[in-house]
Amino acid sequence: MTTKRHVTIEVSDLTSLHIQCSKCNSVLAIPIGKIDRKLPQQCPNCTNRWGEWEHNGPNHTMDYVVEVRNAAENLKAKMKDAGFTLALELSPEASTRD
Hints:
Elements (H helix, E strand, L loop, with lengths): L6 E4 L5 E5 L6 E5 L29 H19 L7 E4 L1 H5 L2
Antiparallel strand pairs: 1-4, 2-3
């Protein structure tokens, strides 16, 4: 017999954004509603620089972080009266990751 497990996360379950340093694996967790444009430009643990921080560049790292916050907040607001729930399914690898 084979069983399958599906792990889903509803939009309303999103609480924070985690930024993990690619060099030392330290994690910075920021509540979705508290994300602003004052995030550190480097890892607070190992000082590895995080992305592109030139404000006039097309790949400004903070723009991506703010977009995630805005999308999460907009979805939460719209889902209150939508008449259905919206959930994201995690891959089996992601749902078993430590």
